[in-house]
Amino acid sequence: MNRVLKRWLIGVGVALFVFIVGGIYLAGRDEVNPPTVTGPVVLSHGLARGERVESHSWALDYQKITTSPDQTLVTLDGVRNGVIYRKGKPYLHIRASHVNVNMVTHDFSATGPIHIESAGPHDKHFHAFDTTSIAWIDGDQRLDMEEPIIITSPGTSLHVQKLSLDVRTGSLHIDQPDGSFRE
């Protein structure tokens, strides 16, 4: 009797296995693949965000967005209310004509007239930066400006050729200053 019961259980097990494998095979036959995107997608008015594990990294409010077919690269036009965060709080406000964002690394570069200012209106070290090109390196939390920059503070301004701002520490590295700057 044990031998008959074992054969019967093995037969039921094999039948169940064949039933499950056949069901999985048949279930996948009628699947419809998602449509392939052959061109860019264009949308208007929205907010793009770069997130870090612990907090926000940046947010860019745009007038128009154009995505690459795989949506890993996007171009934002008309950024008016951009924010770079430091420790989860707004640190810098950005306005830029065009911003190219790598949605994988969360790095971005901006071109056109760019205006950046300190987020705190009562900040004793209030600064504004005007330039035509910037690069945000999200992994380092660093903002690089490679084109001539005008740094302004109430009552004074300074022209520089290059500038790098470490947002984590707040340190500013300036190359080739032209003029004097008082705080």
Structural class: alpha+beta
Number of helices: 1
- Please state roughly what percent of the residues sit in beta strands, choosing from under 5%, 5-15%, 15-25%, 25-35%, 35-45% or over 45%: over 45%
CATH class of the largest domain: Mainly Beta
Separation of the first and last Cα atoms? 97 Å
Q: Name the overall outline.
A: elongated
Question: What does this 3D model show about the protein?
Answer:
- The protein is of the alpha+beta class and 183 residues long.
- 15% of the residues lie in helices and 55% in strands.
- The chain contains one helix and ten strands, in the order H-E-E-E-E-E-E-E-E-E-E.
- The mean pLDDT is 86.
SSE topology sketch:
Elements lengths: L1 H28 L11 E11 L4 E12 L5 E14 L2 E14 L5 E11 L9 E10 L4 E4 L3 E5 L2 E11 L4 E8 L5
Antiparallel strand pairs: 1-2, 2-3, 3-4, 4-5, 5-6, 6-7, 6-8, 7-9, 8-9, 9-10
